[in-house]
Amino acid sequence: MNAAALAQNAYARATAIAPNPRSTEYRAFATVTRRLSEHTDPSPERFADLAEALHKNQTLWIILASDVASDANALPDALRAQLFYLAEFTRHHTAQVLKGTATPAALVEINTAIMRGLRAGQEEV
Fold first, then answer.
1. Which of 25, 54, 88, 100 sits a CA distance of 20 to 30 A from 62?
2. CA–CA distances in Å: residue 99 to residues 42, 51, 67
3. Which tens digit of pLDDT belongs to each residue from 84-123?
4. Considering only 13-22, 40-49, 110-119, which range has the smallest mean pLDDT?
């Protein structure tokens, strides 16, 4: 086998193994959403777990907001604006949950909707 064939073979294997961006995003949302769902108890004994789950979720949304705010982002402007709005809502609602005036249910709902959208995008590919 010559060098070109070896390179092509290696590239094909790497492409097959490398996850696509949508599946990576889906897994990130699935992980933080599962943590939020598991840690909804605001009692003092469990508050640290809830706060950590909220922090992980907030971090994901900050990354997403940074991405959609970038000029290099290829999503349609309207979708970018909606995602940025959801990131802001998430920030505000997280603060309310930490104060004890809201529950994380809305955050779980939003993340689940995003996951459905990412999964639907997978079926189109």
1. 100
2. 10, 11, 28
3. 999 999 999 999 999 999 999 999 999 999 999 999 866 5
4. 13-22
Locate 59 and state its tokens: 């971090």
Question: pTM of the full predicted structure?
Answer: 0.80
- Greater confidence (89 vs 125) lies with 89
Question: Sign (positive/negative) of CA torsion 107, 53, 75, 21?
Answer: negative
Q: Which two tokens mark 120? A: 């639907």
Which of left, alpha, beta for 24 (phi over 0: left; psi -120 to 50: alpha)?
alpha
Q: How far apart are CA 52 and CA 38, in angstroms?
A: 11
